[in-house]
């Protein structure tokens, strides 16, 4: 009795105030969740998230899709503050969100798009997807008994594990990638090609919300190719060119699968091309000559090295004739070899 416990109480209070912080569970991939449920894993070292499912209906029917505005902002990489009723709000600094879903056409169009038809269209959510519908392989998947090599699957798995380890080591630190001057020119030319078709009676006027983001897709795809292939330094013209080809292909798929006027048609009978084929070929020829430091290239090299869908003699001849008429390329005879010289001023 009579002892002073104030010092002991003070020490106890100090001890309790210095209790260790619970370890942050690191989780990146989700399928069926709410926005709040996903973002409770947000921290300075864990700012990237993915909604991924081979059964896309799970994602599109999830409660997360009830807040398209937040999802759009996360996709854009913009910072935002989210209030929560039962706990302190979350201040999100430059988060990242990707979505990857495989879904049956009817489930997507008659389900998600029908319920949120106007919101999906006007919010630009639909335009943030790289959409495709590959040709079905049913009827051709014959088992022959041949031994199939898993070499490339193993290389892929190894690279994915390396990327995961690199991400963990960076602890949320961002890395900024840069185009080389030549790659930047490829991107600028592509942006201008798309932008020129958005206004007035341009061929992309009915899908402006998607086409306006297509150049950004190209830049993002270039970054993904660069990072996944282990390149160093600046993004090369070759990588930028591959990204452009992918952006064009996905753009054409979007317009084939979506009717931008009514949003009800699952496929257009005659697909509109994001970039005319002759312009695609011209861009490739010019990029190739710039990368190799040459003024012209052999026509046969176009057949052998050009984009796969152009590697047919009749098609190349037809496209080159269009480019000759537009003064984008000129034929050049070197010895007995027919070459093609691009107009570098275009």
Q: Could you say which structural class the secondary elements and strand pairing correspond to?
A: mainly alpha
**Helical run tally:** 14
Which geometry do the CA atoms define? Answer: elongated
Helix content: 40-55%
- Mean pLDDT, to the nearest integer, reads 81
Report the strand count: 8
- Gyration radius over CA: 26 Å
User: Strand-and-helix sequence, N→C?
Assistant: HEHEHHEEEHHHHHHHHEHHEE
Number of self-contained structural domains: 3
State the end-to-end distance. 95 Å
The description of the largest β-sheet is: 3 strands, parallel
Strand order of the largest sheet: 1-2-5
User: How large is the share of residues in beta strands?
Assistant: 5-15%
Low-pLDDT sequence parts: 259-272
Walk me through the structure:
There is one protein chain. The chain is mainly alpha-helical. It has 3 domains: 29-125, no CATH class; 177-275, no CATH class; 295-346, Arc Repressor Mutant, subunit A (Orthogonal Bundle), CATH 1.10.10. The chain is 47% helix and 10% strand. It contains 14 helices and 8 strands. Strands 1-2-5 form a 3-stranded parallel beta sheet. The chain has a 3-stranded antiparallel beta sheet with strand order 6-8-7. A hairpin with a 7-residue loop joins β3 and β4. α8 (181-195) runs parallel beside α11 and α12 (277-292) crosses α14 (313-325). It starts with 5 loop residues before the first helix and ends with a strand. Mean pLDDT is 81; it is low at 259-272.
């Amino acid at each position: 009795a009579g002892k002073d416990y104030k010092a002991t109480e003070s020490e106890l209070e100090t001890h309790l105030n210095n209790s260790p912080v619970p370890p942050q569970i690191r989780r990146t991939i989700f399928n069926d969740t709410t926005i709040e449920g996903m973002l409770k894993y947000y921290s300075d070292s864990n700012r990237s998230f993915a909604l991924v499912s081979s059964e896309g209906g799970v994602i599109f029917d999830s409660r997360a899709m009830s807040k398209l505005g937040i999802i759009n902002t996360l996709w854009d990489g913009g910072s935002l503050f989210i209030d929560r009723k039962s706990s302190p709000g979350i201040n999100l600094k430059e988060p990242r969100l990707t979505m990857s879903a495989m879904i049956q056409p009817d489930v997507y169009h008659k389900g998600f798009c029908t319920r949120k038809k106007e919101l999906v269209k006007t919010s630009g959510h639909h335009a943030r997807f790289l959409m495709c519908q590959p040709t079905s392989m049913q009827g051709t998947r014959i088992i022959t008994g041949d031994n199939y090599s898993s070499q490339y699957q193993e290389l892929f798995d190894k690279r994915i594990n390396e990327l995961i380890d690199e991400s963990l080591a960076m602890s949320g630190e961002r890395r900024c990638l840069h185009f080389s001057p030549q790659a930047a020119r490829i991107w600028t030319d592509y942006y201008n090609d798309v932008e020129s078709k958005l206004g007035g009676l341009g061929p992309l006027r009915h899908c402006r919300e998607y086409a306006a983001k297509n150049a950004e897709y190209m830049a993002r795809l270039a970054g993904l190719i660069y990072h996944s292939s282990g390149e160093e330094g600046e993004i090369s013209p070759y990588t930028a060119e591959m990204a452009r080809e992918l952006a064009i292909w996905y753009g054409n798929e979007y317009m084939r699968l979506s009717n931008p006027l009514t949003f009800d048609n699952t496929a257009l009978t005659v697909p509109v091309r994001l970039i005319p084929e002759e312009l695609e070929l011209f861009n490739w020829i010019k990029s190739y000559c710039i990368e190799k430091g040459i003024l012209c290239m052999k026509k046969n090299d176009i057949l052998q090295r050009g984009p796969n869908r152009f590697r047919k003699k009749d098609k190349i001849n037809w496209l080159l004739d269009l480019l000759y008429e537009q003064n984008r390329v000129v034929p050049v005879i070197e010895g007995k070899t027919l070459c093609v010289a691009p107009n570098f001023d275009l």
